[in-house]
Design goal:
The protein has 324 residues and is an alpha+beta fold. The chain is built from 9 helices and 4 strands; from the N terminus they run ααααααααββαββ. 61% of the residues lie in helices and 10% in strands.
C-alpha cells in the first residue's frame, strides 16, 4: 500500500483559523481611532491643565490596551493555525482573548463603581463646559467605533429563524464580541455622562453625575459576566446544549440497530465543532457511511468508535469534512 492510499485519511486542524477575519481589520481601525483620541486628550490635558481631559485620556489608554489584546489574539491565532502543538488548532485563542477582555471589563466596572460611590459620599466640583466637551467628543469617537465593530458583529453572525445556530450558540467570535462590548460600554457611559452633566449644570443636581456612573458600572458589569459565561464554556470544553446532543443521538440511533454509549460534542473554535461518539451495533456501517451521516450535522472534526455487543472488532473513524 503506497503513501497516496493514506492521504484521504490525513487532515490538518486549521479549520479556517489561518484566514484573516473581517473582525481583525476593523478592530485595528478602532484601535487607531482610540489611540489618536488618547494622545489628543492626554496632550490637551497636560497643555491646558485639565484633569478631566487627562483622566479621560488615561481611560482611553486602558481601552486601547484591551483592544490590543483582541488584535493580538486574532494575529496569534492566524499565524499559529498550522502549529501541530495545538491539538484542535488555535480556535480557542479567540475565546481566551474574549475571556481576558471580559475580565478587563469587570475591572473597569468595579473602578467606575468605586469612584461613583466615593463622589456620592463626597461630591467634587465639576468643570461643566470642559467635561461636556470631553463627553461629546468621546461619544463621537465611541459611536464610530461601535458602528465599525457592530457592522462586523452582525455580518459575521447572521440571525437564524430561531435566533440560534445549529448548535445553540448566539455568538461565535468571542474576541470580536469583547472588543464590541468595550467600545459599546464607552459609548453608553458617554451618553450617561452628557445627560448627567446637563442635569447638574442647569438644575444643580450634582448627585446625578456619580449616580449615572454607578448605573453605568452595573450595566458594564452585567455585560462582562455574560461574556465570561460564554467564553468559559468554550475554554472548559463544555458540552453543547442538551437539545443538540439529543438530535445527534437520534441521528445515530435512527437505524434501530445502533445505540450511543458515549457522546461528546463541543466547540473548539469560532463556528468550529468537534464530535466524539462511541456506539454499539450488531451491523456497523462503513467509515464512509458514518462520515456522510455526520458531515451533514455541521461538525468539522469527528471521531467515531464502533463496538459490537459480542466484543468482535469493528471499523472506526476519525476525520472531518475535509476528507469527503
Amino acid at each position: 500500500m503506497n503513501e497516496t492510499d493514506f492521504s484521504r485519511w490525513r487532515h490538518d486542524h486549521r479549520f479556517g483559523q489561518d484566514r484573516k477575519k473581517t473582525g481583525e481589520s476593523r478592530t485595528m481601525a478602532v484601535i487607531a481611532l482610540t489611540f489618536v483620541m488618547m494622545i489628543v486628550e492626554i496632550a490637551a490635558g497636560i497643555a491646558f491643565g485639565s484633569m478631566a481631559l487627562l483622566a479621560d485620556g488615561i481611560h482611553m489608554a486602558s481601552h486601547a490596551v484591551a483592544l490590543g489584546i483582541t488584535a493580538f489574539a486574532y494575529l496569534y491565532s492566524r499565524r499559529h493555525a498550522g502549529n501541530p502543538a495545538f491539538s484542535f488548532g488555535t480556535g480557542k485563542v479567540n475565546a481566551l482573548g474574549g475571556y481576558t477582555g471580559a475580565i478587563l471589563l469587570a475591572i473597569f466596572a468595579l473602578g467606575m463603581a468605586w469612584e461613583s460611590v466615593a463622589r456620592l459620599a463626597s461630591p467634587a466640583s465639576i468643570a461643566f463646559n470642559q467635561a461636556l466637551l470631553v463627553a461629546v467628543v468621546g461619544l463621537v469617537i465611541n459611536g464610530a467605533s461601535v458602528f465599525i465593530l457592530g457592522e462586523t458583529h452582525h455580518h459575521e453572525h447572521p440571525h437564524h429563524d430561531d435566533d440560534h445556530d445549529d448548535h445553540g450558540h448566539h455568538h461565535h467570535d468571542h474576541n470580536l464580541r469583547s472588543a464590541y462590548l468595550h467600545v459599546l460600554a464607552d459609548a453608553v457611559t458617554s451618553v450617561a455622562a452628557i445627560v448627567a452633566l446637563l442635569a447638574a449644570k442647569y438644575f444643580g443636581w450634582i448627585w446625578i453625575d456619580p449616580a449615572m456612573g454607578l448605573l453605568g458600572s452595573l450595566l458594564v458589569g452585567r455585560w462582562s459576566l455574560g461574556l465570561l459565561r460564554q467564553t468559559s464554556r468554550t475554554l472548559l470544553d463544555c458540552q453543547l446544549e442538551t437539545s443538540s446532543l439529543e438530535k445527534i443521538r437520534q441521528t445515530i440511533e435512527a437505524d434501530g440497530e445502533s445505540r450511543v454509549t458515549d457522546l461528546h460534542a463541543w466547540e473548539i473554535g469560532p463556528q468550529v465543532y468537534s464530535l466524539m461518539v462511541s456506539l454499539a451495533t450488531r451491523q456497523p456501517l462503513t467509515p464512509d457511511d458514518y462520515r456522510r451521516r455526520f458531515d451533514a450535522s455541521g461538525f468539522q472534526h469527528i471521531t467515531v468508535e464502533i463496538n459490537r455487543p459480542d466484543g468482535s472488532p469493528a471499523p472506526s473513524l476519525t476525520g472531518g469534512p475535509s476528507l469527503t
